[in-house]
Amino acid sequence: MQIDNFAHRIRLRHIQCFVAVAQERHLGKAADKLLLSQPAVSKTLLELEELVGVRLVERGRFGARLTRDGHAFLTHAVSVLDALEGAKRSVGVDNTAQHEAVHVGALPTVAPDLLPPALAKFRSFSPDAKVDIQVAANAPLLDKLQAGEVDFALGRMADPQMMVGVSFELLYVEPLVVAARSGHPLSARNGVSLNELIQYPLIVSTRGTVPRHNTESYLQSRGLKLPANCIETLSVSIARLIAIQSDAVWFTPMGAVREDLDMQLLQLLSVPLEGTEEPVGLLHRGDANLGPSARNLMDLLREAAALRRASAQSWTLAK
Fold first, then answer.
1. Could you tell me the CATH number of the domain that includes residue 186?
2. Domain containing 48: what range?
3. pTM above 0.85, yes or no
4. Which of 118, 130, 157, 129 has its CA nearest to residue 141?
């Protein structure tokens, strides 16, 4: 099909329908969101696939999943809707920026470390802006970002096929640590062996996450496996309470425990974890048309990350 013919026949409803399906991952839920019937959504999606000449969405009992072509098309579809929203803002009233909604995605281990100090300052820049924080593992965060559900995210790099249309800006490199309650039987030891460590309940991230992969790789490199009776959770709030209230030890990125270390509710065990560091950064769509409030919050997160880098350097030198 000729490009000019495609541009002539495609309609905004095709783009809106496709993005809704990508966001909801289910035709029925997309129909509810668009206030349409499911057959109408299915028909519109079929029209779009006929126009582009490829299958964009796989339908089945599992719901709706984007194909490889679907992921590529999504980047441009979201850009179209962003551009229209930007055009709307540009002709709106002067105080539009003050009433923006900023949608932020964040890893559970990064959110408590960077977002509170940034948001404390953010109110002075955009006192009326709504901030929606969506916490998820890295893969779902990238899906949310590419589907336009969040403006930007605090996350990690991923495989190239998952980073289509997404830029990564490094903020800092975060080590994996082992934390336990203050006064833990292992806390007074200058060096803790792994055989001693795994005698206690272990708290680890869920499967498919970078901290979980690093924990398992670290143990495997030393001839050990993750015990079958470990506690798995993506929730930082649950993991920290278990660690504080029991003798369980927690494998976690440093950012998740920094505040508890300062308050002496938790302390780091003397376990060498060199080589487990992972980069943390801002993920954003390169062509996203972000409003002033979103850009301000990103700048404040950069400032918070700079302070974290300085703090980590001081801690390393003191150690």
1. 3.40.190.290
2. 3-82
3. no
4. 157
